[in-house]
Amino acid sequence: MFRYLLSIIILISTCFISSFTPIHGSITTRIKDIANVQGIRDNFLFGYGLVIGLQGSGDKTTFKFTRQLAKNVFEKLGVVTSTDDFDSKNIAGVLVTAKIRSFAKPGDRMDVLVSSIGDAKSLEGGVLVHTTLQGVDNEVYAVVQGPLSIGGFNVGGKATDTRKNVATTANIPRGALVEKEIPVHIFHENSITLSLHDSDFTTSLRLMEIINAIYPDSAQAVSAAEVRITPPQEFRTMDRITQFISKIGELPITPDAIARVVINERTGTIVAGENVRISTVAVAHGNLTITISERTEVSQPGSFAPTSATTKELERTTIDIEEDEAKLHVIPDGVSISEIARALNVLGVTPRDLMAIFQAIKKAGALHAELIIM
């Protein structure tokens, strides 16, 4: 009871002090939103199967894998057959993939993705036959079966066709049934480890201090990405460790971040963090436009021209050069990203121009941030 009251007092004091602390641009979030417990993760499953019921849009007979797969399915049902018996194009071989979440129990359902591996034109209207899904350890963790949903179509004739979305990839919503639970290990040597989504030494240290304020001497910042926590004695059981992780995840924290400017040259997108700073720099930017036009002129012989004179075509090229006036603007030292944007907007530059300006400022050594070009 005393520990519970002490935790409430510390939380109230933290919120009261932080409300009067002028941290420009900082945000407060929960620990669970910036870190995860090691051992809690999704896993990928895969398998291969047979899709039936296609209207002539399946694999051709030259794709022998599908015929062999169909033969195996019918042999399990006690039917003696050969690959030559399957000469229609109503079946297709597919690869089935799925993502199983942590703590999934037998009987839970999940979505699966079905992709053609042969030369089928479309999986529209098909039904996936009973298929097992296994993990990287070759153990079967789920089974899937059901009608496919492609969310589109692929129709046409001999001259042309019309397609919406990809008809050789389909989904089966909640089509997989979990058969075996994947074990989750989060408690190692009486401790758990939190992994930051974005590695940062400052954030790691803040995380350690916040947890130690509630549970003294329980957290240790191992690296910029990991904080190891030793729960108090009363939480060191599997039924109480869930409560401990829940309490830790709800604690408030102000994460730190490295100053970055991210430029996507394909889309013309520029994203800059709040901690971006520059030294005093002068920027001049102007556009140079060169227009080249070509035209053909016809030269006719004059009235008194000799009889050997003929009509000729002459190529004429005109080059116009136009350069906008560029003014020199001085951006002062240590301004924030909002002030940088305001100063650059005075130049009337486009996002493409901003990319060139940021790269030039970085090369000049005046941009104190990491420049990432995608």
Automatic annotation (TrEMBL):
Signal peptide positions (record): none
Similarity-based family: Belongs to the FlgI family.
Name used for this protein in its record: Flagellar P-ring protein
UniProt main location, coarse: other
Function: Assembles around the rod to form the L-ring and probably protects the motor/basal body from shearing forces during rotation.
Keyword Transmembrane helix listed: no
Any one biological process term the GO annotation gives: bacterial-type flagellum-dependent cell motility
Protein's organism: Candidatus Scalindua rubra
Subcellular localization, as worded in the UniProt entry: Bacterial flagellum basal body
Gene Ontology cellular-component annotations: bacterial-type flagellum basal body, distal rod, P ring; outer membrane-bounded periplasmic space
